[in-house]
Amino acid sequence: MPMRHAQRKHIIHSLTSLLYQLHTVSFLLSPRLWPFICRLSTQFQFSRPREIDSQRSLRFWFILIFLVNLQCFYNHVFRGASEGRSIILDFVGIAHKPSKATLLSLDFTIVTLEFILTTIAYETSFIRAMPPDTPDPLQPEPIPAIPVSPLPLNGDDTDKSMVSTPSNSGPEYVVDIRLRALLQRLRHPPPPPPPQQPNLSDDLLPLPNTTTFQLTRSLNMLVRARAQMRERAARTPRPPGETEPQRPERQPGEAQESRRVPGSMGGEDEP
């Protein structure tokens, strides 16, 4: 699962970089500034939708993609390519004015890739917040078992028969987006994931800043073990007649025994 998550993160990053380039190409073919700024300012949201707003469903983000690109579709359908000045120097350019079909095909490509990007980013973050036994909607469907049949016998009539078994050595896909499953996901959004359980190590006392990671982990284990021993001793009933051993009283002028770990807070007997 961690390897698949890292591969999906790489796919998300690659699609995001590609979409930024396609937005720039669309602007160079038809230099309209405000649609270009609107696309660039909202592109980062589609690469991490649940980190921005975890309460929104995938359907909301699809509608947002359509609304963001609606102005570009309107301009390219009814007005065609713009001939105004561009704020970017295009050293390549084209010798003729691009047609409406070219601009619309580029817009359809951008919208399709944004749908794919948002789906992968949303489902990847959603499945990590769900329990481990939750099925992954981006996983490929299991291959149905092929009915086996005996092979024809060679030569003599014996009862030996060979059956063909399906091979499982095929490539394992990282992402498998199926249109039927995606439409079902849009029509019936899944319930939000349950709240995450708090980490037990967050309730412990803070350690000094000079403590390294290895020392912090070791001291946390010691603190937890000491707390468990105290709880076990408190739950263990004492035999009748046995009293708690008393500690020797400290005489006046006697130095107090130090029980403090260097760099940590005071011990149990210290105020």
Task: Write up this protein.
The chain starts with a helix and ends in a 36-residue tail after the last helix. It has helices at residues 2-29, 33-46, 49-52, 58-78, 100-129, 179-187, 213-235. It is mainly α. 48% of the residues lie in helices and 0% in strands. Among the domains are: 2-129, no CATH class; 200-231.
Give me the secondary-structure topology.
Layout: H1 2-29, H2 33-46, H3 49-52, H4 58-78, H5 100-129, H6 179-187, H7 213-235
Helix pairs in contact: 1-2, 1-5, 2-4, 4-5
Brief overview:
Residues 149-171, 185-208, 228-271 are annotated as: Disordered. The protein has 271 residues and is mostly helical. Helices cover 48% and strands 0% of the residues.
List the main descriptive attributes of the protein structure presented here:
single chain; 271 residues; mainly alpha; 48% helix; 0% strand; elongated; DUF1746 domain-containing protein; DUF1746; transmembrane helix
Mean pLDDT: 74
Question: What is the radius of gyration computed over CA atoms, rounded to a whole number of angstroms?
Answer: 33 Å
Strand content: under 5%
Put simply, the count of helices is 7
Structural class from helices and strands?
Answer: mainly alpha
